[in-house]
Design brief:
Elements (H helix, E strand, L loop, with lengths): L2 H8 L10 E3 L15 E5 L5 E8 L26 H13 L5 E5 L6 H18 L5 E5 L6 H10 L2 E3 L7 H7 L5 H18 L6 E8 L6 H15 L3 E6 L16 H16 L21 H9 L5 E2 L5 H4 L7 H13 L5 H6 L4 H4 L3 E2 L8 H4 L3
Parallel strand pairs: 3-4, 4-5, 5-6, 6-7, 7-8, 9-10
Antiparallel strand pairs: 1-2, 2-3
Helix pairs in contact: 2-3, 3-4, 4-6, 7-8
This protein binds iron/sulfur cluster.
Iron/sulfur cluster binds next to loops.
């Protein structure tokens, strides 16, 4: 099979694998139909946007995860790149200006160790033979050895290993042959340890959960997410809504709701960027977040309505808990109140703060904003 034909099979196979912040709705328009569904606009830390080629090295998986389209025995057209072949193809696309970075994952072929070696070999060829200095995201395979993780981290800008589920009990319902702690979570701990020992630029680390196929609650997902952010320094936890794949054991399950995915991301940012603890999130009795309301707003309705925040005095931490004030807005607000007292909503509006959202929860110079109750019903 020609390399471009392989890419046509293996690139779009990553479409449900969130890996970076993606700008735009989906894959980028590309000059060749062979590359359709393979190149995305990825937003790098700092805001720079690059064209990112996303592909698998192989789809010939020997494992049988219950939800996965690539599971062994499923009938579809599979393909496998050699490291040389993929590196050469990527460099051609890079030289033509089609792709500036690469996200590289793989199904497991010949065991996790051998698959990891092939992923590392591809990145090594790119870096050493072709002198590629751009962005590389490498997957860490279940069961990879520590020296392989180190080698991958020396080559990549980002590494990731998918936990798939928030704990071993839930993982057994998705992938009965994967071992949560020994095969997966331990690799994230190694990544954290290795990052701390590295000097200079260090690769970031991410993971992904499949949401909605293992009976897991939002509380389970977010408790593990909080641990990953606080204790293992992950840059991002991704939530991938379950989509039933024909001819898999979980094909009868309904797809997960995109709104649930959205609420999980909102709550995970509260944990990562807003100083919330998982116990503070507004879970219902079933351990799930309410779908009808943003979790920060739900928290504020319980805690701030009767105790509004004086924006001229409150600390950064308290201000961040007010709906409508985010990490950038709070910086602008702190700067502005050093210059002058904030007395009305128009001053907040000029700072780019969503006044309709903040108004019910704040005091401006000791007073609730004018006409708040009629304008912003709760
Ligand atoms: S190991 Fe990965 S590619 Fe293979 S069946 Fe499981 S989830 Fe799918």
């Amino acid at each position: 099979m020609e390399p471009l034909e392989k890419l046509r099979l293996l690139g779009p196979a990553t479409r449900y694998e969130p890996a970076e912040e993606i700008g735009g709705e989906g894959p980028m328009d590309v000059p060749s139909p062979d590359l359709s569904g393979c190149v995305y606009q990825a937003v790098m830390p700092g805001g720079r946007r690059i064209a990112l080629l996303k592909t698998l090295l192989s789809s010939a998986c020997e494992r049988d995860c219950l939800y996965c389209a690539f599971r062994a025995g499923r009938d579809f057209r599979r393909a496998t790149f050699s490291p040389d072949e993929l590196a050469r193809l990527f460099v051609q696309l890079h030289r033509k200006g089609i792709a500036e970075g690469i996200f590289l994952s793989s199904a497991i072929v010949g065991g996790g160790l051998r698959t990891q070696d092939r992923l590392i070999a591809t990145a090594e060829i790119l870096r050493r033979r072709y002198g590629f200095r751009g962005y590389i995201h490498l997957k860490i395979m279940p069961g990879a050895e520590r020296d392989q993780v180190e080698a991958a981290m020396a080559l990549a800008d980002r590494v990731s290993i998918n936990l798939e589920a928030p704990n071993g009990r839930r993982l057994s319902r998705l992938a009965p042959h994967k071992v949560f702690e020994r095969e997966l979570l331990r690799r994230l701990r190694w990544i954290h340890e290795i990052r701390r020992q590295m000097h200079g630029s260090r690769p970031s680390a991410t993971t992904q959960f499949v949401v909605g196929a293992a009976g897991e609650s939002d509380l389970e997902l977010l408790a593990t997410t909080a641990y990953l952010y606080r204790h293992l320094g992950l840059a991002r936890v991704y939530f991938s809504p379950f989509r039933p794949q024909p001819d898999t054991p979980l094909e009868h399950l309904p797809p997960a709701s995109p709104l649930r995915e959205h609420r999980l991301y909102q709550a995970s940012f509260l944990l990562r960027d807003y100083g919330f603890d998982v116990e503070e999130l507004p879970f219902g009795p079933d351990g799930n977040l309410p779908l009808a309301v943003d979790p920060k707003l739900a928290w504020a309705r319980r805690h701030l309505i009767d105790a509004p925040v004086e924006v001229n005095r409150a600390s950064r931490e308290v201000l961040l808990r007010v709906p409508g004030i985010g990490p950038k807005g709070v910086q602008r607000l702190l700067r502005a109140r050093r210059q002058a007292r904030l007395r009305d909503l128009s001053q907040l509006r000029k700072l780019g703060i969503a006044v309709d959202r903040v108004a019910p929860f704040i005091l401006l110079d000791g007073r609730r904003p004018v006409r708040q109750l009629s304008l912003w019903p709760l």
